[in-house]
Amino acid sequence: NKGKFNQKQVLTEESVKTLLSLQAPASTMKNTPQETEGFAYAHGAWIIQQNEKDEPESYTVPSLSGTFPVLDLCRNYAFVFITKNKADDIKKEIFLKLKAAVDDAIPSICN
What we know:
The chain has about 110 residues and is α+β, with helices and mostly antiparallel strands. The chain has helices spanning about 15-20, 90-105, and strands at about 5, 10, 40, 45-50, 55-60, 70, 75-80. The strands form 2 sheets. A 5-stranded antiparallel β-sheet has the order 3-4-5-6-7, with no helix packed on it. It has a two-stranded antiparallel sheet with strand order 1-2.
């Protein structure tokens, strides 16, 4: 929505573009939490997927309790995967499988 909420501009389009832009490629990230290994970094969020031009397409901000929120700009959806209790067996791979299932159900507008 390019910075709009209830038809009102609350952030400039340029601010949104900056917040969602790539800040650090995954290859440069050291000592990251296990849940974010392999993800690139934006301002305050981890980039799950990028296109062939390295432009971010989807983001997450995983918590230490196992919660994974998702924002997918190419499929125009957001969801939050919440666990009842902190579970050591809730791994990034399970979250990514869930996201892949949602992605399969919703066509991308970026292709």
